[in-house]
Design a protein that fits this description.
alpha/beta; about 15% strand; globular; about 375 residues; 15 helices
């Protein structure tokens, strides 16, 4: 398609009424993850970004005296008349209020990240209106219990869609490596505040970063004593500042550690899959590593902040503040104990630990066979 033709096509999508579709995806965020499993030519994306709103649908919505984004999304569905409505934005009440306005479709949401207590805040029903869908595809039984409590829908455990889709890397290629998942976002203003679940300021991000870097220094200390290489797995694509934080802390790369800049959606999965041990603070990627069968240590530092009880490991499961895989605090001895225990475990012991923890926390379904089967049963799966 020429550039001019592409421009005309984009204008048409905004100005003309959207065509009928078997599937509608709400909204554009995460839509690419779902398009791999449905027939793209019969799928409409309900883009809720203001600059991408369809003018024809918007005009009909406003002329009827409706002005909310929920009204717009419902009008879009009434126009395209889908049989199935999907979303990767599983924590927005908007999606769960659409079924009452277009009940002819089957509504399916897909969990896209590990959920702490703000999940409950995000899904509070406004005005007492119930939140409803047909199915919620979730990581594991811990998440399923949350969805059952707050949404009128059937939870279905599939694991993480993105983790399931990422190819497996041959085990053993980095058996001498500890992969530390960085959560130092590159664009964060260090003088801004991390807020609590009710929006109250708790601590400046400078202190949050300092605590995570303190953990990194203790992980590096363990790696030196165990003769393991520390591999810091970067968070952002634009990682110069992030890399600099670790270089200032640990010294020049090559002296027992290295930094793996994020190169795209697959690179982080490649890095964790090659490691002997993965270390996570608050990242979904840590739980995804556990689902892949990788020895994973969790140091849930934010659980020590006032009121952040949902940041404990495995919440809402009542697992306590210490365990063989985790500690809900910043503590040098706990770092050495958890990492040392994981390093000393033989494969049989680790397999036993996996059977105990993984089914409750996050499953793994390589290739997303359960999602494919569901969409196939609904008549919209990609063959």
């Amino acid at each position: 398609m020429t550039r001019a033709a592409a421009r005309l096509s984009a204008i048409g999508r905004v100005l003309l009424p959207p065509r009928r579709a078997q599937v509608a995806i709400v909204d554009a965020e995460g839509a690419d993850d779902l398009l791999a499993y449905v027939r793209e030519e019969s799928t409409a994306i309900v883009d809720l970004r203001r600059r991408h709103l369809n003018a024809w649908v918007l005009a009909r919505t406003v002329l009827r005296g409706r002005r909310s984004m929920l009204d717009y999304a419902a009008a879009y569905l009434r126009t395209v008349k889908p049989a199935v409505v999907l979303t990767m934005i599983d924590t927005t009440p908007l999606f769960y209020r659409l079924k009452a306005r277009w009940p002819s479709a089957t509504y399916v949401s897909v969990q896209n990240g590990w959920r702490a207590h703000e999940f409950v805040r995000d899904l509070r029903a406004e005005g007492g209106e119930p939140l409803v869908a047909d199915r919620v595809l979730c990581f594991g039984e811990a998440a399923a219990s949350l969805y059952r409590e707050h949404i009128g829908a059937e939870p279905v455990v599939i694991g993480s869609l993105r983790n399931n889709a990422a190819p497996q890397v041959a085990a053993g290629t980095g058996r001498g490596t500890v992969a530390l998942i960085s959560t130092l976002r590159d664009k964060v203003d260090l003088d801004s505040w991390m807020v609590g679940y009710d929006g109250e300021p708790l601590v400046r991000y400078r202190e949050v970063f300092d605590r995570r870097l303190q953990l990194a220094s203790w992980v590096a200390e363990f790696c030196r004593s165990a003769r393991l290489h520390l591999r810091v797995v970067g968070k952002d694509l634009d990682s110069a500042r992030e890399r600099g934080f670790y270089r200032d802390l640990l010294g020049p790369e090559g002296d027992g550690w290295s930094f793996a800049a994020r190169r795209g959606p697959q690179s982080s999965y490649d890095e964790i899959s090659r490691a002997r041990i993965v270390v996570s603070t608050s990242s979904t990627l840590g739980y995804e590593a556990l689902a892949r069968g990788i020895r994973t240590a969790f140091f849930m530092l934010d659980a020590e902040l006032p009121g952040r009880f949902g940041d404990r490991f495995g919440w809402p499961l009542p697992l306590g503040d210490d365990g063989p895989l985790w500690a809900n605090r910043l503590d040098r001895d706990a770092v050495a104990e958890v990492l040392g225990g994981l390093h000393r475990m033989n494969d049989v012991e680790w397999s036993h630990a996996l059977r105990e923890w993984v089914p409750r926390l996050i499953d793994h379904d390589p290739g997303n066979t359960r999602l494919r089967a569901l969409l196939g049963s609904l008549g919209v799966g990609r063959s």
